[in-house]
Amino acid sequence: MHNRIRRRNAVATTLLSMAISASLVFAAVPLASADDDGSPHRKPASSQAEPAVTMVAARNDRVARLLASMSLEDKVGQMMQPDTRHITPQQAAEYHIGSILSGGGAAPESGNSASDWANRADSYQHAVINETGIPLLYGVDAVHGHNNVADATLFPHNVNLGQTRNAELVKQVGSITASEVRATGSNWVFTPTLGLPKNERWGRTYEAYGENADLSAKLGAAYIEGSQAGESGSGLAGSDSAIATAKHFIGEGITKDGVNQGDVPLDYDSEAFRKILDSELLVPYRAAVQDANVRSVMVSYNSIGGVKCHGNADLLTNVLKRGLGFTGIVITDYNGIDQIEGNLNYAQKVAKTVNAGVDMLMVDEHEGTQPKWIAARQAVIDGVNSGDIAMARVDDAVTRILNVKDEMGLLENPQLAYSNKELLAQFGGEAHRAVAREAVAQSLTLLKNRSTDDGSTLMNDLPSMKRIVVAGSSANDIGMQSGGWTITWQGSVGDVTTGTTIYEGLKTAGKENGQTVDLKEDGSFTGNYDAAIVVAGESPYAEYAGDRTADQLTLQQKDINTISSIRKTHPNLPIVLVLTTGRALTITDQLKQVDAVIMAGFPGSEGEGVADVLLSADRDFSGHLTTTWPKEANNITKKYIAPNTVLFPYGTGLVKSQVN
Predict the structure, then answer these.
(1) Superkingdom of the source (predicted)?
(2) DSSP letters spanning 257-278
């Protein structure tokens, strides 16, 4: 895979000129080959406003009988996914709700432990099962582990997993995450992100595996397979698996200026966009749907040529359902209905979304004075009664939902929907954390290294140096190193959860090596040291809160000052810069001041993985960049067509014996 991707990087520039519109640059580098299988069948653009119905069959008599027994109100209830912050267990039962979610930071009122989450989930399932006999699907944003829950195993973000290029490891991450999710009574994870981040101004860059479609396809499919098989390998019907979600369909990562929820400024029916769609954007989804059998796909907030994906019937029905053959659940993003363009009221937006091919509505907050899920539910019922929504469209949606529940064994054995005490005992345990630690180590990517006077290199010599000083804002802060989607939606700095900071890992490894490792966060120190390790990067953020202008893509000023101070006061001291960042930053000035640079992404809770490579004489770097890193962030739109604007090419990854 590695060599093939690099070859494509060198030759695949054909689409680029077709994809430059306004400030958008969609890199045609590297291209993924288009498949004849699954090529989307499309209707003309004018048909996008028409109700779109493509029916799936009930997977067995149990589903068929259940569907036939349901009233319109029962069916529409199955299509709702309210947030637990705005629906009670009693309401979920009364309205025959099909799914709930607990979004970022939606901790139970009783506390944020795994047991608190399990008790809350069980209260909803108990109420609904007693009323309807049909268990809930319970979704969570398990973006890098079961990251909302205190003391969960927090894996490195996908930017790191991409740098490992290790599909088996990613599959294991998926299965462990599913196990910890099922422990607490949830059974649906809203991950992996299959967008292709071509513009690092985008605030979700770190949620993706990288800019290459083939790599994203390989790792995305691996994660899905792991999640839907579970640690036991029992498959969806097992007690430790969770349905995965391929998201966000489609176009994120290539919007104008990298704006989250922004616009891809190409006409949806244009030759330029169609080629990009077929040859790159759909590549990870083909693998997710046709190879990994993903059971849910989440629609993207962004628009294409000014048309929001949530209302694009051609995209969701003709391309995804008919073209790719997707038989699972198409779900909106959080309140994605609200963003449908045009002068439409809420009920009309709901109808347009459902007619486009969406099966389940993720809704939260309020519409006027009532909870939004009540308004959405009524809008679907009224839409069917008025003829604005075809009954066949509702039947298709509910069949898909019931099929997935049946695949999970929930209809045959509703007890599987409850939290799992055996898995709770393993929650955040050492075996899981060991895998997260290994993922950190494999993801570390060496970008710069220098030779030493004795013919060795700095990174080769670091494990034998006796005195090392550690500095930087991310050195001893588990919140910083974990990034967004950590306990809360945006994440935060500080001691937010159980784990090991990068400094703590270095100190422990140093002690085992007979090394002294001291922390001087601001870089102010006296005495003799053999090397300084500065751990610096971005503060936590998520989604649109992470969108940046080009001139904002830099290290924090305090870290810039720390590096400058060490260089000024200790001019001959080797400096190793460890970057905890979700994307490329402008570091050209700092590059002149330091002797080695390591891209560490957002490692998560197991910071020892950094020391496992840096301070080990027996382990080398194995990571490779999965995005093209420009010299200056204002070169983002030029980096694929002007090689002289690139600092670190796609695929860069040195070993300790190499220098550059």
Answers:
(1) Bacteria
(2) GG-TT-EE-S-TTSHHHHHHII
Residue 145 lies in a domain: yes
Strand 303-304 to 263-264 pairing: parallel
- Evaluate whether residue 567 is within a structural domain: yes
Same domain, 329 and 438: no
Structure confidence by residue, pLDDT tens digits, 624-645: 999 999 999 999 999 999 999 9
How does pLDDT run across 72-82, given as a tens digit for each residue? 999 999 999 99
pLDDT digits (tens, 9 = 90+) for 22-71: 334 443 333 333 333 333 333 333 334 454 588 999 999 999 999 999 99
Query: φ and ψ at 18, to 5 degrees?
Result: -80, -15
Q: Is the pTM of this model over 0.85?
A: yes
Contacts of 296 (CB under 8 A, 6+ apart): 188, 243, 244, 245, 246, 328, 329, 330, 331, 404
Residue in this structure with the two tokens 């102010």, named with its chain if needed: 524
At 558, which CATH number? 3.40.50.1700
* Annotated catalytic residue 538: no
When divided into structural domains, the chain yields a total of 2
Residues 157 and 294 in one domain: yes
Contact status, residue 196 vs residue 213, Cβ threshold 8 Å: yes
Write the CA distances from 179 to 173, 207, 377, integer angstroms. 10, 21, 32
Question: What 3 state SS string does 549-593 have?
Answer: CHHHCECCHHHHHHHHHHHHHCCCCCEEEEEECCCCCECHHHHCC
Q: Which tens digits make up the pLDDT trace of 417-467?
A: 999 999 999 999 999 999 999 999 999 999 999 999 999 999 999 999 999
Q: Are residues 280 and 219 in the same domain?
A: yes
Cα 26 to Cα 1, 206, 210, 531, 595, distances in angstroms = 22, 18, 13, 41, 33
Asked if residue 37 belongs to a domain, the reply is no
Q: What percent of the chain has pLDDT over 70?
A: 92
- 333 tagged catalytic: yes
Say which of 543, 547, 559, 612 is annotated catalytic: 543
Same domain, yes or no, for 447 and 596?
yes
Q: Say whether both 408 and 439 belong to one domain.
A: no
Q: Which domain holds residue 217?
A: 2-24+51-341+352-365+392-419
Task: Indicate if 476 and 409 belong to the same structural domain.
Answer: no
8 pLDDT higher than 50? no
For 425, other C-beta atoms within 10 Å of its C-beta total: 10
312 and 440 both lie in a single domain: no
Burial class from Cβ neighbours inside 10 Å (0-12, 13-18, 19+) for residue 35 reads middle
- Is 657 part of a structural domain of the chain? no
Same domain for 403 and 475: no
Q: At what angle do helices 391-407 and 372-386 cross, to 10 degrees?
A: 130
pLDDT digits (tens, 9 = 90+) for 375-395: 999 999 999 999 999 999 999
